[in-house]
Amino acid sequence: MTPAEGKVAGPDRVTNTVTDTGLTTRPPSAVELGRRAYRRTQTARSVLLSAVSTLLFAIVIWVFVVNTPGWTRVQQSFFDPAVAVKACPRVFEGLLLNIRVLLVAAVGVLIVSLLLATLRTLRGATTGRSGSPAGTSATHARTGTPCAPGSAWCSSSSTSSRT
Hints:
The protein is mostly helical. It has three helices and four strands. The strands form two sheets. The chain has a two-stranded antiparallel sheet. Strands 3-4 form a two-stranded antiparallel ribbon. The longest helix is centred in the middle third of the chain and has 41 residues, at about 80-120. The radius of gyration is 37 Å and the shape is flat.
């Protein structure tokens, strides 16, 4: 085997490796391998720490909730299957009401947004061709000379000038 085939050229030298796609890659250095190992240990440590803290938090909350006065009443009210079945029709009615409100609101938003978009595209009687109020002409802010319609540096005589 020759070094051109991407194998070891000698006992002390490592050459580039040719991949399946024809790209040449270099083996990672000892420093890079150390970084990768450090990242692996940090990731494992982070996952372990988050799992332990989540478990401890859940245990503290469970102990706190179970020892709260009135816990038996909450169990009887909210975790009793008979009470849940009895409450299902009212919960379903509330769900249907929420869906109706959502649909009405969506239609209202659609109407208002279309109206606003239409109004923004109309040229009204209150503005002239240059965007100035009707009856006024656009003038240059510094010189006072008439401007071309749509010029960015012109202002109406009735509006404040740009500086």
